[in-house]
Amino acid sequence: MNAAADHEENVRPVTRCRVCGASDWQEIVSFGEVPLANAFLAPAASYEDEPAYPLGVISCRSCRLMSVTHVVDPEVLYRSYSYVTSDSETITRHMEFVAATCRERGGLAPGDLVVELGSNTGQQLAVFARDGARVLGVDPARNLAAVANERGTPTLPEFFTAATAEIVRRSHGPARLVLGRHVFAHIDDLAGVLAGVHALLAPDGVFAVEVPYAVDLLEKLAFDTIYHEHLSYFLVRTLDTLFTRHGLSLFDVERLPVHGGSLLVLVGRPEAGRPVTHAVSTLIEAEKRAELGSDAGYREFARGVRAIREELPALVRSLVAEGHRVAGYGASAKGTTILNICGLGPAEVAYCTDTTSLKQGKVLPGTHIPVRSPEDARADPPDVYLMLAWNYAEEILRKEAEFLRAGGRFVLPFPKPVIVSADSVR
Ligand code: TYD
Ligand code: ZN
């Protein structure tokens, strides 16, 4: 069998909606064939047979789930995973907020069992453990589960399914809190995962879910968050439909700035009788007013995406043509995606700097731009950084004050590409 056929076996087109089962889709945008966003490669003389998969987004006309057009086999995406949870100030502060919210609004107390799906290296669970919870992580990435276990956060190297949930319940008892931070949007078999949550949750237990908010994507046009791992882009109304269909009840929601705009949603058993907060109806009403249930809003989004797809590479090329050296800041999955979608490669972007040691020394998927450590980048800085970790822009601009003072500039891509210099961030 040749390599191309091999890759085809790992992907399938989306037909039925994973939330409501309908199959009436509005096509929004298509980006052609794109390599996997986190598939960093060792530098090589040639990159023949690098897999690429169709990437695009569609919207379900029935429940308004936004979904990617194709699902790549999770065994391919997640068994060995190079995305390590950030230890940035922004995320560290956010994890404290999540723990406090679960304690206050979910009624979590010391000694309670907290199970996290997609727990990565265990940073969030460590915060709960510090506050006295019993914790257990479940993450299919064997490399990351091993790190978490070494650091003292017990972690099962498995996908969370109904079967895994049964095993956990038998060995640890029911969970007072099940947590899924930025993993829920990566799950195709929502029915299987929610059956597991249902089985594991204590009668008064809470399922806390954090997902990127589709409204932020639609408003900020940050289409680089559209890649194969992100299967779903949720509205509150879509999440409400989903949980109700699976015998659960969404009772509270909060809009958060993290990862470019997210929702923290609290879900319980309907029998627990938790009152639904005003925040839930307020957001659902606002979604309706903004006509997010109509085709027109998504057509508008597609127009905005097309504009940035033209303007951003044109801006970078003009900087290069003027003799400026450009590098990428952050080899984020978003960054590898936007470079591929905009057709920017090593001719325009000399390197990308990134703090993740797993990525350093490798090259970006598709574009093969090399990744350098911050130390190497500081020793050989560019004239202009293309901000590829824009969700940390504030923190990064503060950290790079010296670069800016020395005349360095940043290009911020969304919602319209702009150049910032020391003068503009003062
Ligand atoms: P992140 O936005 O967390 O996620 P994704 O890969 O899902 O798009 O990625 C940010 C990347 O930027 C991550 O690889 C770490 C890197 N980074 C830096 O190199 N320097 C920094 O100061 C920060 C905050 C992030
Ligand atoms: Zn649907």
Shape: globular
Kindly report the average pLDDT value.
Answer: 95
| Total of helices | 16
Number of strands: 19
What is the topology, as strand order, of the major beta sheet?
A: 8-7-6-9-10-13-12
Rg calculated over all Cα atoms: 21 Å
Oligomer classification: single chain
Quick structural summary:
With 426 residues, this protein is α/β, with parallel strands linked by helices.
Word description of this protein:
It contains 16 helices and 19 strands. By secondary structure, it is α/β, with parallel strands linked by helices. Helix 7 (190-200) links the parallel strand 9 (175-181) and strand 10. It has helices at residues 3-8, 74-78, 89-106, 123-130, 142-150, 162-172, 190-200, 214-220, 236-245, 278-289, 295-321, 333-342, 374-379, 393-399, 401-405, 422-425; strands at residues 11-13, 25-34, 53-60, 66-68, 70-72, 113-117, 134-138, 155-156, 175-181, 201-212, 232-233, 249-256, 262-268, 326-329, 349-353, 371-372, 384-387, 409-412, 418-420. Helix 6 (162-172) runs parallel beside helix 7. 37% of the residues lie in helices and 23% in strands. The chain is globular. The strands form four sheets. Strands 8-7-6-9-10-13-12 form a seven-stranded mixed beta sheet, with helices on both faces. Strands 16-15-14-17-18-19 form a six-stranded mixed beta sheet. It binds thymidine-5'-diphosphate and zinc ion. GO terms for molecular function: methyltransferase activity. This is Methyltransferase domain-containing protein. It holds the Pfam family Methyltransf_14.
Keywords:
methyltransferase activity, 6-stranded mixed β-sheet, Methyltransferase domain-containing protein, binds thymidine-5'-diphosphate, 16 helices, 19 strands, SAM-dependent_MTases_sf, alpha/beta, binds zinc ion, transferase, Methyltransf_Zn-bd_dom_put
